[in-house]
Write a structure and sequence with these properties.
Glycosyltransferase, globular, mainly alpha
Length: about 400
C-alpha cells in the first residue's frame, strides 16, 4: 500500500476536503434535480432518491441523517451555502416523521442527532430542535425497563454496543432539561454492568435477553469472528458511546470506559493503521478491512486527546497516522470511503433479510460521515457545534 507518507499533513487534509466537496456538489445537484429522500447505495457510496422517508424498517433504512450531518460539517468548514441548503431539505423531509412516530429501531437516533440536532446547532432554527426533542421522546418506545437499556430493535431480545451512537441528541438536550438524558445514562450504565466493555477495554457486541425475565443470558458477537473476539467497529462504538456520555455528563466512569476502550484500540493498531473487520479472526489478513471503524475511532481519539492531556500525544499520533492512511488509500476523489464491511452477520432472524455480503467489501453508511468529522476536528479550532455540553 502506498501511504503517501511524504505528503505534508495539512496538504493531505486539504486534498481530502476537496474530495468531499466534489461528492457533496454532486449530491446537491442531484437533489435539485430529483428531490426526495436520499438512499445510500452500498456498492457505489452515492445516492438514489426515494419519495418517502423510511422510519420503521431496518432493512430499508436510508441513512439520510449521515448525509445531512456530512453536509452540515462541510457547510461549517467551507461556508458554502448550498451544503447547508441541501442538508436542510433532508431535515425537512425526515424531521416531521421522527417527531410523529414511536421509534421501532435505534438507528433513527442517527437522524435525530446528525441531521436535526446538528442542523439546529449550525442554523439556530428552532423547528429542527423541536423535531429532535420530539424524536427523543419517541425513542423511549424501545427502552426496556426490565433490562434497563434500549433495545437494538423493538422486537429483538438484545442490547448492542452500537446504541451509544444513537443517543447524543438526548444527551445534548439534557443541557436544558436534565431528565431528557435519564434513559440514555441508564442504558450506558447497563451496558457497562453487563460487560459489553470488557475489563481489558476490548468490546463485545451484544447481550442476549431472556424473553420473559429480561435478564442477560449470554454475551455474543453478531458481526465478529466469534463471541470472544473483538469486532473492529464494535470497539469504535464503545469508544464513541462513552466519549458522548462523558462529554455530556462529566461523569468519570464514562471517561474511564472511553479511555480503556481507546487504549485497547491504540495498543492494537495494525500495520497500515486501518483494522480488518475483526482483530482475532485467524484469516483476517485476507478478509475485509473496516475503514468505518478507523474513521469513527480516529474522530474519538481526537476528542479524547482534549479530555486526557496525559494521553494526548499518543492518541493524536495514532489518529493522524490513521487519517493519513485513510486519505491515501481508502478515500475516492468523490469523497467516498471504500473498503468497509458489515462483518460476518452470522445471526439471522426469521423473516428478516441479511444485510451483509461478507467477505465482500461494501461502502458503509458510517465512514462517509466520520471522515468528514475527522476533517472538521482537525481543520476547525471551534468544535462548539459538535459539543454535547460546552466546557471551559
Amino acid at each position: 500500500m502506498n501511504l503517501a507518507a511524504d505528503e505534508p499533513y495539512d496538504r493531505a487534509l486539504a486534498r481530502a476536503l476537496g474530495y468531499l466537496c466534489t461528492g457533496a456538489d454532486a449530491v446537491c445537484a442531484d437533489m435539485a434535480r430529483h428531490g426526495g429522500v436520499p438512499r445510500l447505495n452500498y456498492m457505489t457510496g452515492f445516492y438514489t432518491w426515494d419519495s418517502d422517508y423510511v422510519w420503521d424498517s431496518w432493512a430499508d433504512f436510508q441513512w439520510a441523517g449521515f448525509l445531512a450531518g456530512r453536509l452540515w460539517l462541510l457547510h461549517a468548514l467551507t461556508k458554502e451555502q448550498r451544503y447547508g441548503d441541501t442538508a436542510l431539505q433532508i431535515c425537512e423531509r425526515i424531521g416531521p416523521v421522527l417527531a410523529r412516530h414511536p421509534t421501532v429501531f435505534s438507528s433513527t437516533g442517527i437522524d435525530m442527532y446528525y441531521a436535526l440536532t446538528l442542523g439546529h446547532l449550525v442554523t439556530k432554527w428552532d423547528e429542527l430542535k423541536r423535531w429532535a426533542l420530539a424524536g427523543g421522546d419517541n425513542f423511549a418506545n424501545i427502552f426496556d425497563r426490565k433490562a434497563g437499556a434500549f433495545l437494538q430493535i423493538a422486537s429483538a431480545d438484545r442490547i448492542v454496543i452500537d446504541t451509544g451512537l444513537n443517543l447524543p441528541s438526548m444527551l445534548w438536550a439534557s443541557q436544558e432539561e436534565p431528565q431528557r438524558a435519564a434513559l440514555a445514562y441508564r442504558h450506558l450504565d447497563t451496558v457497562l454492568a453487563v460487560g459489553l466493555v470488557r475489563a481489558d477495554g476490548s468490546s463485545c457486541h451484544a447481550a442476549a435477553l431472556d424473553p420473559r425475565t429480561r435478564a442477560v443470558t449470554r454475551l455474543f458477537n453478531l458481526q465478529g469472528w466469534n463471541d470472544a473476539s473483538v469486532w473492529a467497529r464494535g470497539q469504535a462504538w464503545a469508544m464513541l458511546g462513552y466519549a458522548h456520555g462523558y462529554e455530556a455528563s462529566g461523569k468519570p466512569h464514562y471517561l474511564d470506559a472511553a479511555m480503556r476502550a481507546a487504549d485497547w484500540y491504540v495498543d492494537h493498531a495494525p500495520e497500515g493503521w486501518v483494522p480488518r473487520y475483526d482483530y482475532d479472526d485467524p484469516e483476517r489478513a485476507s478478509l475485509p478491512y473496516d475503514s468505518c471503524a478507523a474513521c469513527i475511532a480516529t474522530a474519538v481519539l481526537l476528542r479524547l486527546a482534549r479530555f486526557l492531556p496525559e494521553r494526548a500525544e499518543r492518541y493524536r499520533n495514532v489518529a493522524r497516522e490513521t487519517l493519513k492512511a485513510l486519505i491515501a488509500n481508502f478515500l475516492t476523489v468523490g469523497g467516498v470511503v471504500l473498503h468497509g464491511s458489515w462483518g460476518r452477520m452470522r445471526h439471522a432472524e426469521p423473516g428478516k433479510p441479511r444485510l451483509g455480503r461478507f467477505p465482500q467489501e461494501d461502502v458503509m453508511p458510517y465512514g462517509n460521515y466520520w471522515i468528514a468529522e475527522c476533517l472538521f476536528r482537525e481543520m476547525s479550532p471551534d468544535w462548539s457545534i459538535l459539543a454535547l455540553r460546552p466546557r471551559g
